[in-house]
Amino acid sequence: MSGFWAVFWLAVIMKIPICLLLYIVWWAAKDPPDEWVAGDDEGGSHRDGPHPRLRPPNPPRRGPHADPAPSAPARVRVSGRPAREPERPA
């Protein structure tokens, strides 16, 4: 007789929470009544976009109140000839 109660518990009693869960999901997914959909109360935000547009950062100041512009780096010229090896002392 104890096997009957185990099967009864699993087959009948444990189905109640599953049925309630399915009912809650069905209730949440069904369409709302028409009076909720027809309301044009313009709720929510009226902003144009999700974020304000950011300006690029200002370039560094050049003039009498700031450091002068940095000088250009030294240029290195490469010729088509292979480099000479240094002479070795004998």
Structure write-up:
- Helix content is 34%, strand content 0%.
- The chain has 90 residues and is mostly helical.
- It has a domain at 2-30.
- The longest helix is centred in the first third of the chain and has 15 residues, at 15-29.
- The N and C termini lie far apart (109 Å).
Which outline best applies?
elongated
Give the end-to-end Cα distance, rounded to a whole number of Å.
109 Å
Structural class: mainly alpha
Radius of gyration computed on alpha carbons: 40 Å
Number of helices: 3
Percent helix among the residues? 25-40%
Please give the largest β-sheet.
Answer: none
Low-confidence stretches: none
Compute the number of strand runs.
0
SSE string: HHH
% residues in beta strands: under 5%
Mean pLDDT, nearest integer? 76
Q: Brief description of this entry?
A:
With 90 residues, the chain is an all-alpha fold.
Q: How is the topology of this model organized?
A:
Layout: H1 2-13, H2 15-29, H3 34-37
Features:
single chain; 90 residues; mainly alpha; 0% strand; elongated
